[in-house]
Each structure stands twice: as C-alpha cells, then as structure tokens.
C-alpha cells in the first residue's frame, strides 16, 4: 500500500485584527505613529500572528506598505524644480514598494486615500485623515509612475492640479486657473461673483484678425 505523505498544515491567514476595541482589515489605509510627534500613512497588507511585542506576546505583528508624502520624495532625482514643488499637495501621498513588519501598537487610526479627482469633489475634508494620490513612488529608483510631466495639467500655466491651492473657474470656457495667473490675488478671487479668464476676455476679432467694433 502506497503511503500518503503528510502535507504541512497551512498557516491561517487572518484578514481582520481587533486592537483597542477597533477592528482593522487588510487592505485598509491607516495612520501609524512614527515618533511621539510625527505620523505616517500606510496600507495594512498582512497580519502576522507570531512575533509580537515582547511586552505583549499576544499582540501580532503586521506588514505595512508605506505611502510617502512630498517631503519624502527626492525632487532633484525626479527632475522637479523648486518652483514646481508647489503643485504637490500637503495631503498628497504616494504608494511605494517599501514594506515593513511592525508592531500592531503603532496603529493610530484609520484614514482614507482617494484618487485626486474624487478628492477634489469632496465637500468637506478632515485634513488629518483624508488624503489623495495620483502616482506611485519607487524610493530605490527615485521615480514616479506616472512621471510628473505626464500628470494632467490645468490653468494657462499648464501645471498639475494641487487641490490644496485656490483655483477660479471661467464662466465662459469652464476652465480652472490660478488667480495669480489671471493677475488676481486670492482675496479678489473669493470676492469675484462672475469671472472670465484672460482668453475669454479678449475682444472678438473680424476675419482679418482686427478687433471688431
């Protein structure tokens, strides 16, 4: 009789974890404590039952995919000028291929990461727990995917959208522009009820290109 070879039992893969009476699931984006005064954003990728905190042996470890912020990017290697850095949002994060295994007690709270267009449509935003993303960052190769030059562009200056900055919409062409690119300051933009961009304000021309009377 042929003997069956015993297969090693597969380790159970946990999808949820309860910590301090709050349930967390793999795939959720969370805020983690980095130091006493700083936090970082990451995605809960895996729950590791063994290898917990020595002070709390029943606590599992977790694997986290880190989301970098603009201050973590190497702008010089990315070819992004100092002037163009203003087009990166304060609440913008970049998923990376940087993973770490950390103690579960680093979890601080849940957060939300939206695509930039969805984020821009939100009526209310909690700046502490609401973020947006439009590119992945490879910290080893120092590249963004898609690259900064390939991001969707707005305004007459043809620069990427930063939802944290103020824009004003032309009532004729419906395009969004920076107030400064229209010769206005932010206060003037807030007080303007009807706005036409520089291109739409140009006087109509006749067939020869001369201003019509």
Q: How would you describe the overall organization of this protein?
A:
The protein is built from four helices and 15 strands. With 213 residues, it is mainly beta. The chain has a domain at 16-147: Bromo adjacent homology (BAH) domain (SH3 type barrels, Roll), CATH 2.30.30. α2 (116-120) links the parallel β8 (112-115) and β9. The longest helix has 6 residues, at 186-191. The radius of gyration is 25 Å and the shape is elongated. The termini are far apart. Keywords: Metal-binding, Zinc, Zinc-finger. This is Phd-finger family protein. GO terms for molecular function: chromatin binding; zinc ion binding. Residues 152-203 form the PHD-type domain. Pfam families: BAH, PHD.
């Amino acid at each position: 009789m042929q003997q069956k070879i015993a297969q090693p039992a597969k380790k159970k893969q946990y999808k949820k974890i309860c910590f301090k009476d709050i349930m967390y699931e793999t795939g959720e984006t969370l805020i983690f404590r980095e130091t006493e005064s700083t936090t970082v954003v990451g995605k809960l990728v895996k729950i590791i039952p063994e290898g917990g905190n020595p002070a709390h042996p029943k606590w599992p470890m977790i694997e986290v995919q880190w989301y970098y912020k603009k201050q973590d990017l190497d702008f010089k290697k990315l070819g992004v000028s100092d002037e163009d850095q203003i087009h990166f949002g304060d609440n913008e994060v970049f998923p990376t291929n940087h993973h770490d295994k950390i103690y579960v007690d680093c979890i601080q709270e849940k957060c939300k990461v939206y695509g930039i267009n969805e984020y821009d449509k939100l009526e209310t935003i909690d700046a502490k727990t609401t973020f947006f993303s439009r590119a992945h960052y490879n910290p080893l190769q120092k590249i963004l995917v898609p690259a900064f030059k390939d991001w969707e562009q707005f305004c007459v200056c043809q620069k990427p959208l930063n939802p944290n900055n103020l824009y004003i919409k032309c009532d004729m062409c419906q395009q969004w522009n920076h107030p400064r690119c229209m010769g206005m300051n932010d206060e003037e933009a807030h007080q303007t009820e009807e706005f036409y961009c520089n291109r739409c304000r140009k006087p109509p021309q006749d067939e020869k290109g001369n201003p019509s009377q």
